[in-house]
Amino acid sequence: MREIKKRDLFFVDSFTIGSSLGVKVALENDVPAVRRDIFLDNERSEDAIEKKLIKTIELAKEKGSAVAIGHSYPETVNVLKNSLPFFEKEVDFVTISEFF
User: Which residues of the chain are modeled with pLDDT < 50?
Assistant: First the structure.
């Protein structure tokens, strides 16, 4: 975290295990940090990814923001490419660096 702070970066916890201390340690070291809310493509089908994207949008509307992460799988890219123009009418999408 010291190196991240020195480089004026931020920490994104993919939160793949429930006992992750990444955000806690980052904040203790004055490093901006966030934990993902939704993992888009742990199931690698376009239908499942689209459902996760919809869940992300619902969560963002409910709590004001939501962080989704995923891989650059062809299925994920296709869903984002085809769905974002429609969903951008409902919420603002930002890059993670704009989140901070």
Answer: none
Lookup: tokens for 41: 């493509």
Q: Where are the domains of the chain?
A: 1-35, 39-100
Phi, psi of 82 (to 5 degrees): -85, -25
Instruction: State the first-to-last Cα distance of the chain, in angstroms, to the nearest integer.
Output: 17
- Across the chain, mean pLDDT equals 94
pLDDT, tens digit (0-9, with 9 covering 90-100), for 14-34: 998 889 999 999 999 999 999
Per-residue H/E/C for 66-91: CCEECCCCHHHHHHHHHHHHHHCCCC
